[in-house]
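> call design_seq(struct)
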């Protein structure tokens, strides 16, 4: 009897210490439901992996006025690809423009940089959120140069410029973790993120909304008075009124964890990259949402590099209308292109980005 009691006391003490010294302090919450996987409307068999080992971690895409594509890689490089059918892109087409880190130590993201969300401003300059170096502006002509606009964000993630005011809005995903520990931010799921506004007239930065849970992708609503942002670990899209900072839920209880979102070119819909699914019959994070202490203990015992091994390998993105309703989805249960960060419509195809995949995904756009 005493041995059992001693064992129980030892295990209890160990678990207590694990929760106290965990790298995270997870928040307990609950999702409304565990959704059913929506019907797949896009054919997965027309999916292609392109330029493996060359385009590593193409997180986000920007298209210039000449139809050329820009993306950021996990090595810190921003690259450019020519205006043609992406299935015809070759390794020699990849133009390495600049590395955001100046004193890069190979394999060290904090010194090499990590370009994430990117878009062009009205002057044709490339706005980039770099997870290590903040909000950047890249001038491409007559020569390539980079300017740091703000280092206010601890983890700058996605960016856009308002076409009327030229205010630059960008997300700060975490106050606790850099991107190299982003899965800890996901597991913690605490309201530590912000939506920031950079005002070019005086180079000031304003916090428009604080206490957001893992905000990442953003898109300007067509009404131009509000924007939509993804709250990744809460499976939500949030609408923000730009004049007041007032927030409301735009789409709730999504069947995935949303990443970047972009308006489609051919339809007035949003294309939502999904870092993973959250659907019936089981989702581990869904089951543990209300168990913050258990997530603390998991983060203590599981080495960080092993956390991805417990994630399901599944590819998914959603198409959502401007009323927040799902009108289309693409699913890849064979994990040809898992861990989708962003989808960009280009030359009758979808460019499918990922923060981790070591290739670019290409998929044919179905006709509606």
């Amino acid at each position: 009897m005493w041995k059992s009691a001693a064992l129980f006391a030892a295990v209890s003490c160990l678990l207590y210490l694990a929760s106290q010294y965990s790298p995270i302090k997870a928040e307990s919450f609950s999702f409304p439901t565990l959704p059913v996987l929506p019907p797949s409307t896009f054919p997965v068999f027309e999916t292609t992996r392109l330029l493996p080992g060359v385009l590593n971690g193409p997180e986000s895409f920007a298209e210039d006025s000449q139809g050329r594509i820009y993306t950021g890689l996990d090595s810190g490089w921003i690259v450019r690809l020519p205006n043609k059918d992406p299935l015809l892109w070759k390794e020699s087409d990849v133009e390495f423009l600049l590395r955001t880190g100046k004193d890069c130590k190979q394999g060290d993201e904090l010194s090499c940089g990590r370009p994430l969300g990117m878009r062009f401003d009205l002057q044709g300059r490339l706005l980039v959120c770099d997870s290590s170096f903040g909000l950047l502006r890249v001038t491409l002509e007559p020569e390539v140069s980079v300017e740091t606009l703000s280092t206010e964000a601890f983890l700058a993630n996605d960016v856009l410029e308002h076409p009327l005011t030229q205010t630059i809005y960008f997300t700060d995903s975490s106050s606790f973790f850099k991107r190299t520990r982003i899965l800890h931010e996901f597991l913690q799921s605490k309201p530590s993120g912000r939506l920031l506004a950079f005002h070019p007239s005086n180079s000031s930065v304003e916090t428009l909304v604080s206490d957001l849970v893992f905000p990442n992708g953003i898109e300007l609503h067509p009404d131009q008075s509000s924007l939509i942002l993804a709250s990744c670990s809460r499976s939500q899209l949030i609408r923000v009124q730009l004049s007041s900072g007032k927030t409301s839920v735009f789409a709730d209880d999504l069947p995935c964890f949303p990443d970047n979102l972009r308006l489609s070119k051919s339809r007035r819909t949003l294309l939502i990259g999904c870092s993973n699914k959250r659907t019936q019959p089981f989702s581990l994070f869904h089951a543990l949402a209300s168990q913050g202490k258990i997530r603390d203990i998991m983060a203590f015992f599981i080495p960080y590099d092993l956390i991805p091994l417990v994630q399901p390998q599944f590819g998914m993105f959603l198409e959502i209308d401007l009323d927040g309703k799902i009108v289309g989805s693409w699913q890849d249960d064979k994990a040809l292109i898992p861990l989708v960060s962003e989808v960009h419509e280009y030359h009758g195809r979808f460019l499918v980005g990922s923060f981790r995949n070591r290739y670019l995904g290409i998929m044919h756009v179905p006709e509606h």
